[in-house]
Design goal:
Structural class of chain A: mainly alpha
Structural class of chain B: mainly alpha
Strand content of chain A: under 5%
Helix content of chain A: 55-70%
Order of helices and strands of chain B: HHHHHHHHHHH
Helix content of chain B: over 70%
CATH superfamily of the largest domain in chain B: MetI-like
CATH topology of the largest domain in chain B: MetI-like fold
Strand order of the largest sheet of chain A: 1-2
Oligomer: heterodimer
Amino acid sequence: MIDRRKNTFISVLILIPSILLVGLFIYGFIGNTIVVSLSDWGHRLGGLAFDPEKNFAGLENYRQLFSGFVHGRFRQDLVNAVFYSILLMAGTLFFGFLFAVLLDRKVRAEGFFRTLFLYPMALSFIVTGTIWRWLFAPSGGVNIIPTFFGGTAGTFLWISSRATILQFNWQDLFQVLSIILAFVFLTLLIRSLRTGSPKGRTFSIVMLLITLLYASVIHRLLPPILPFEEMHGFNLATLGICIASIWQYSGYAMALYLAGLRALPESIRESAQLDGANEFIYYMRIAIPNLKPITLSAVIVLAHISLKMFDLIYAMAGADNANTGHPSINMYLTTFRANNFASGAAMAVVLFLLAALFIIPYLIHTHRERRG
Amino acid sequence: MVHNSLSYRFKHYLLYLALALCSMFFLVPIYMTVITALKQPADINLLTAWSVPSPVYWKSFAEAWVLLGPNLKNSLVLTFSATIISSFVGSINGYVFSKNSFKSSELIFTLILFGMFIPYQIILIPLFQVLKNMGLYGDLKGLILAHVVYGIPIVSLLFRNFYDQIPDDIMESARLDGAGYFYIYGKIILPLSIPGFVTVGIWQFTQIWNEFLWGITLTKQSSNPVTVGLSQLAGGQAVSWNLPMAGAFITALPVIAIMVFLGKYFIRGLLSGSVKG
């Protein structure tokens, strides 16, 4: 018993430097950034001065970001980041799963294909960005591929297009969000009706009604979050960035899924075949549901990557290209070029909160699993 | 199953056709990089972007090598020192979390792990301030410190998962023989840790080699790492594309070599870092 206590004592002693460093450099710094975001540091000149002026400003920086005159670009960046995250996740998981299924059938030279699909993952985003920037050059690169087959050259401006689809007025943001939520709860409701399990049914109905009520009535009664109309949407210029990121990360999803597929017991596959399931049904009905934990951890990692994405956009489109903007780029420009530390900190906090939305539930989940 | 049936063979061809198409997607960027890097600056134009260089012009590589030289040196110093330090930190932490866990060690582990998933923008401003006040701003030492500290979560996770695979019996029998805490670590665990060090080492190496955000915000010109150097090489307005492409090739070479020769360990790190059990 004494021995055990001594062991624990040494263990704690070993961990103390790591705990202190992580405590200061991660938790302390997050706290510090939040405090800075509540100040006015850098709103006037002299943000870099030895003893800069800092006053408490409450939530003013956040109000400015979401409903002020000057931060229209940040709002578009935020919309870009949401679309970018969705496309990156969907594309990466889809192609990763496709590659895994192709390689799962005892292919010759499997090692070669695996390395080929995975090597972009080891590259720096700056390398990837430099190469794809040339591939997406307006009147060269991929745009002239059709001419090799007798077609006409493409004219799409991959990185500099100004076209925007799925536009909405920022004043209607909460209406749009509540309609999306209504769809989510409707799907949950339909699923619970189909499977016949009453779990969460009442909750879905109540939430569906609340979101619909908000979208149709309440929204109109509240004052608009912005005093003027401002359109935002999916900038097509981000498509090039999305393709390059999918190129870089689909191999990662492939590696995860391939390991998962290999870990599924052969007996499941055999019994599925005996039941007359063809391979398509096997993958759709049996493999995908069984690989849910893998999909979940891939989603967490990809969400984190897409929310902090900086290097690739910087290298492909440059920091000043507003069409492909991202909050992380804006944060860099605001903080280190304009020396407006308070607004930059507020942008960082918004990014952090979006990431935390994914990470914290996931960490709690894995923590419980490890203990349980 | 009749393996020679027509439908089986058809499916077989279809599979390889699909794989060949997918491979194109991954080979095309390499092809483009190499042919562009080997063209004379005057021969590079958008309309003939895909054509093979004639004559082959090797000088761009030498030129990019000279331009990126100081950055490559910085990156080598940075990557090797930070990787070595953080591997040892990870090993001792992993030994505690896996083989000497105590009542609240799981909670500490989860709290440390959190640092792996934060967007680094959230710590950038205080990090910049602290390094400036410590006199480390602009210097490679500051960057090494940052990489070691923010590497703690991932290296602890990787080593913990690695040590979980070593059976506890080894520990128990050593303890019964009266071996102490550090004796077991030094004489039993460390010698078994070589694959763990390789996995963590190449993982940290690629991460640190490729890092850009801190490189551009926390270092001065003289200590810029290679990613920053490459971005400047490729960033100008009137870019002659042979240089950025040769530079991209040079920058990618070390990590590509790791992928080709030590890919097994890279995948191991990838899986161990994502699928937590």
